[in-house]
Amino acid sequence: MISVDYSKKPLVGIIMGSSSDSRIMKAAAEIFDEFKIKHEDQIISAHRTPSRLSEYAEHAEKMGFKIIIAGAGGAAHLPGMIASHTTIPVIGVPILVYNDKHPKKADAAKFSAFGGLDSLLSITEMPSGSPVVSVGVNKAGNAGIYATKILANEFPTLKKQLKKHKSDQHNSVMKESEKLKKEGLTKFTKKKFK
Ligand code: RP5
Q1: By the 8 A CB rule, do 53 and 82 touch?
Q2: For ligand 1, is residue 7 a contact (CB within 6 Å)?
Q3: Which fold has domain 12-154?
Q4: Coil, strand, or helix at residue 76?
Q5: What tens digit of pLDDT does each residue of 40-73 get?
Q6: Considering only CA atoms, which residue is closest to atom 10 of ligand 1?
Q7: Every domain of the chain and the residues it spans
Q8: Residues 52-59: contacts with CB under 8 Å, at least 24 apart
Q9: At a CB cut-off of 8 Å and minimum separation 6, what does 83 contact?
Q10: Which one in 14, 66, 129, 149 has a CA-CA gap of 20 to 30 Å to 176?
Q11: Is any ligand 1 atom within 6 A of the Cβ of residue 22?
């Protein structure tokens, strides 16, 4: 019997290494908002607030989170470190660092030196026995959809909504394709990317 109301009790924790990541991570929140899944969002830095890692993991377990979505850029230890503190499955979001929080600092690069590959490898190359799954660089929205799919195993309403989400995507591609066919590639592209 299902007793939890996922629209009232947060079953997902979204965390990120810095406020710089929030513009990317908001795509996950937008998916949850669309599906009316309550989520709790926090900043936890694996490097700047290391003591919060175990505290947060304990908090997540107490709250009964079923999934944690963790986004980080650069060295990106957050997803792996949280995963090492808890049995709750973690979805990592590698972030192509914006780092424009300190625009006046001489060494403030807008993007990480390795264009997000650094965080992708850091998240996916966890040692055997301590897994974290990862979406693509900056693909926080996919993390949201994936988490919704996991929750849908338990909540049939979400499964229905996901099916609709899929058919909406199908219809939107069909609509664009019709337009492209009617207008021809040259006119279509000129209008779309003017
Ligand atoms: C990482 O360093 C964060 O996840 C963020 O992507 C990056 C830059 O953070 P700030 O220096 O802008 O706070 O730990």
Answers
A1: yes
A2: no
A3: Rossmann fold (3.40.50)
A4: coil
A5: 999 999 999 999 999 999 999 999 999 999 999 9
A6: 99
A7: 12-154, 164-192
A8: 53/81, 53/82, 53/85, 54/85, 56/13, 56/15, 56/82, 56/85, 57/82, 57/85, 57/86, 57/88, 58/85
A9: 90, 126, 130, 131, 132
A10: 149
A11: no
